[in-house]
């Protein structure tokens, strides 16, 4: 992506900042849970690649019923019932903490009066459980959750929905995401974008755009 000092000349002013949640604001790793339950590294790798995998989890982000998913997975992988059940009952343990530095950026933007929003691929029941215990999102004006809408990034429809709800033109919003496909989808629709790697690079970008002073 462009160096920070190029943003000011290339883009119109940012009126609102829109964050992804997982791996931008909070850490997310299935192994944070399953590393507690599976001691053999090779078996842990196999299980999180083939049984409770990110690709399988993505179906729940898209709105597939949790009980249906779990029952089908148990039938497909017999003998792993307790481990598959842990996905449903202990999901918040896959979120071991915050991404270093990102929450400080959110608080700084909020203190400067920058409107904040989010678009997240997050299963509806898991989001409700997580959100109830996370005050950071009190600073956000609105959050589009894929599991509620049954639309997932990078589907253009979720960005169109978000723009309508947030009340800003895509060109006036900066979308921040760690997933290159999501960033590309937003950019194609006219959003300003930042492909997140770490908080330090994000801070430089936001400062170059005049959002951090």
Could you describe the 3D structure shown?
Helix 1 (4-10) packs parallel to helix 12 and helix 5 (66-76) packs antiparallel against helix 6. This protein folds into 2 domains: 4-27 and 96-208, Rossmann fold, CATH 3.40.50; 30-94, no CATH class. The model is unreliable at 1-9 (pLDDT under 50). By secondary structure, it is of the alpha/beta class. The chain contains 12 helices and 5 strands. The protein has a 5-stranded parallel β-sheet, with helices on both faces.
Q: For this structure, what is the CATH homologous superfamily of the largest domain?
A: HAD superfamily/HAD-like
Number of domains: 2
Count up the helices: 12
Q: CATH class of the largest domain, anyone?
A: Alpha Beta
* CATH topology call of the largest domain: Rossmann fold
Largest sheet: 5 strands, parallel
Radius of gyration: 18 Å
| Chain-averaged pLDDT | 95
Q: Report low-confidence residues grouped into runs of 5 or more.
A: 1-9
Percentage of residues in helical conformation: 40-55%
Organism: Novosphingobium colocasiae
Protein name: Hydrolase
InterPro entries: HAD-like_sf, HAD-SF_hydro_IA, HAD_sf
GO molecular function, one term: hydrolase activity
């Amino acid at each position: 992506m462009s160096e920070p000092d190029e943003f000011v000349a290339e883009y119109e002013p940012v009126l609102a900042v829109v964050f992804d949640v997982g791996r931008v604001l909070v850490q997310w790793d299935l192994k944070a849970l399953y590393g507690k339950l599976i001691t053999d590294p090779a078996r842990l790798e196999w299980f999180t690649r083939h049984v409770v995998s990110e690709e399988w989890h993505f179906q729940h982000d898209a709105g597939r019923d949790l009980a249906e998913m779990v029952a089908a997975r148990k039938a497909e992988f017999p003998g792993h019932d307790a481990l598959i059940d842990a996905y449903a009952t202990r999901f918040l343990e896959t979120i071991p903490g915050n991404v270093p530095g990102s929450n400080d950026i959110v608080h700084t933007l909020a203190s400067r009066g920058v409107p904040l929003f989010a678009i997240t691929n997050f299963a509806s029941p898991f989001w409700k459980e997580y959100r109830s215990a996370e005050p950071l999102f009190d600073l956000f004006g609105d959050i589009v959750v894929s599991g509620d809408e049954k639309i997932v990034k990078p589907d253009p429809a979720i960005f169109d929905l978000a723009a309508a709800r947030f009340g800003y033109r895509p060109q006036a919003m900066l979308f921040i995401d760690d997933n290159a496909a999501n960033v590309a989808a937003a950019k194609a629709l006219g959003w300003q974008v930042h492909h997140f790697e770490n908080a330090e690079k994000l801070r430089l970008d936001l400062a170059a755009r005049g959002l951090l002073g």
